[in-house]
């Protein structure tokens, strides 16, 4: 039965899927805009550090004030309302909640939220892919051990890429490459929150209107987010990652099957079966017509002449050999699509993308020459960006995961472009996120 029909059935039975949202920022607000339009779902509560911020975003997306309350959770639930609170622990622990949607964007906090949710028997849809990038395999293992589902968030590009990869493999196609698009030029890796809007292509007015966070959007621009998302995809699908970071080959949609082939066949890949990101800009900055900037794609191979001929007969656009074909989705709708994950997790017991092993990592890399005593400010900030590397490489060098490069002091100088390791920083080893990362490294040793 389709998810929508199952949701309608739950609505008719007055047994809705009961959801708690942690974090009511931009992504959370997009999900909030869809909840009233989705049958069979009751948003039990929203936990946010600022209830005023949560109210503002509820108002922004069109919720009338009478649909939510900050007085009492049990009373709000009986009235079919949504409870607002700063106390995420109380919300996660409450027996009324079936699924927790972690939407803070803070990887260290997200790990704590996920672990608490598992401890209280809740499924988790983790929007904070930064947390998944540095310890997703262990989070997935802990959820499975508890008989729960841990999932990436549909609407975000990693889950959409995983969906395309699953489609390809289920149909019998070998995956040559899969990934997303991005607006990329090499100097964007040096971008800061002060330069982000000009490089990103938005005015400050547009950013302010949308309530957009410059640090978060700078993490998209400077290459951190593409690396984070490709790490999540590689860990979920087993696809390989480039040995020294993403290449960002420029290509139109039409040219993706040309460039996402092995080097030996005229493409850019080190080997078949890799993640990569396609740039929407030529090396000289010219905009590529019909780009894949906001979309996702998978390139598959016809292993027989018969399949190759089928591609030709049905006008599938391929590379010149006729063997490589790319299926794509040109846009993704971010938080507007998270309902797919909530329904899949709650009704089917299936994740929309989940780590199966530790194959890739995102290592904090200096944006400029850094001095001992400086404080790292994480993805999208002024000090480091995230570089995608094979997990084996990161493990061998003792790479500092980008997700833990937040408010951490350097203990020695680091040159621009150098990837950091554990010995470069004074890490708080009592952090739950640090402990789970180290536990993951030991369990998934590569």
Structure, explained:
It is built from 17 helices and 16 strands. With 446 residues, the chain is of the alpha/beta class. The chain folds into 3 domains: 158 residues, NAD(P)-binding Rossmann-like Domain (Rossmann fold, 3-Layer(aba) Sandwich); 136 residues, no CATH class; 84 residues, Antifreeze-like/N-acetylneuraminic acid synthase C-terminal domain (Type Iii Antifreeze Protein Isoform Hplc 12), CATH 3.90.1210.10. Helix 1 packs across helix 15, helix 6 crosses helix 17 and helix 7 runs parallel beside helix 12. The longest helix has 17 residues. The chain is globular. The model has no long low-confidence stretch (mean pLDDT 96).
Supply the number of structural domains.
3
Cα gyration radius (Å) = 22 Å
Query: Strand sequence of the main sheet, in spatial order?
Result: 3-4-2-1-5-6-7
Please work out how many helical segments DSSP would assign: 17
Q: What is the CATH superfamily of the largest domain?
A: NAD(P)-binding Rossmann-like Domain
Helix vs. strand class: alpha/beta
Query: Which segments are poorly predicted (pLDDT under 50) over 5 or more consecutive residues?
Result: none
Q: Which percent bin holds the helix content?
A: 25-40%
How far the N terminus sits from the C terminus, by CA atoms, comes to 40 Å
Summarize the structure.
With 446 residues, the chain is of the alpha/beta class. It is 36% helix and 18% strand. The radius of gyration is 22 Å and the shape is globular.
